[in-house]
Write a structure and sequence with these properties.
The protein has about 220 residues and is mainly alpha-helical. The chain contains five helices and three strands, in the order ααββαβαα. A three-stranded mixed beta sheet has the order 1-2-3, with no helix packed on it. Helix 4 runs parallel beside helix 5. The termini are far apart. About 10% of the residues are buried.
Length: about 220
């Protein structure tokens, strides 16, 4: 069905605007290049500084490029006083033979006749100060022997300790012509008390007035 309206009559030239719409004017606002509350301009004015990456964080070096590692000299740091020559070795070899915080326990002092007495087996005895000085000069003490249980250096009289004491006592009672040389090899697992047994042997020899030659580690 054909329309009764002429389509040519709807063209802008043939359809004038009403008189009441002629008073309105079209206003165009200038477009803004940035939003009124945006921080883009501030960020562009003060761009964030890039963090310097360490050579390990930058990844592997590119082909044909060598990786360089810069190390600060550290001249501004205070390292304190350097140890004097021989001070570190003295600290490693320092052995504390007493513990002031240990409980006060009354122990009998080790005497010359105690080293071969079987009644002393299983008892703790305290070494006299003169014997401690002799053992210290011979470097018989070790840090792994555990001297911090008592207020004074003490040792346990074991069965092997008394056996060695009896052997030394027998050799001391012999005449100079019939005196013999005794050789013993001490073996045992780690932590079984070999070094402590050697110390007790030297203590028994010192109490008998022997001259002890010790070769420390």
């Amino acid at each position: 069905m054909s329309s009764r309206t002429c389509w040519r009559c709807l063209s802008p030239a043939s359809m004038p605007l009403p008189s009441h719409t002629a008073q309105f004017k079209f206003l165009r606002f200038p477009t803004s290049s940035f939003a009124p509350f945006s921080t883009t301009t501030v960020n562009l004015a003060n761009p964030p500084k890039k963090k310097s990456l360490t050579p390990g964080a930058r990844g592997p070096p590119k082909k044909g490029q060598r990786a360089t590692f810069r190390r600060s000299s550290g001249s501004g740091r205070d390292r304190g006083r350097r140890p004097a020559p021989g001070e570190r070795k003295a600290m490693r070899k320092r052995i504390v033979l007493s513990n002031a915080n240990a409980l006060a326990v009354e122990l009998s002092r080790l005497a010359e006749e105690d080293i071969h007495d079987e009644e002393k087996i299983g008892q703790m005895v305290s070494m006299p100060d003169s014997l401690v000085d002799q053992l210290r000069n011979a470097e018989a003490f070790k840090a792994t022997q555990g001297w911090g249980f008592f207020r004074h250096p003490s040792m346990l009289m074991r069965k092997e300790t008394v056996e060695v004491g009896q052997l030394i006592h027998q050799m001391s009672e012999e005449d100079a012509q019939s005196r013999r040389t005794v050789r013993r090899i001490l073996v045992g697992d780690r932590g079984s008390g070999k070094s402590m047994m050697l110390l007790q042997t030297m203590a028994a020899a010192f109490l008998k007035g022997w001259t002890v030659i010790n070769i420390p580690e």
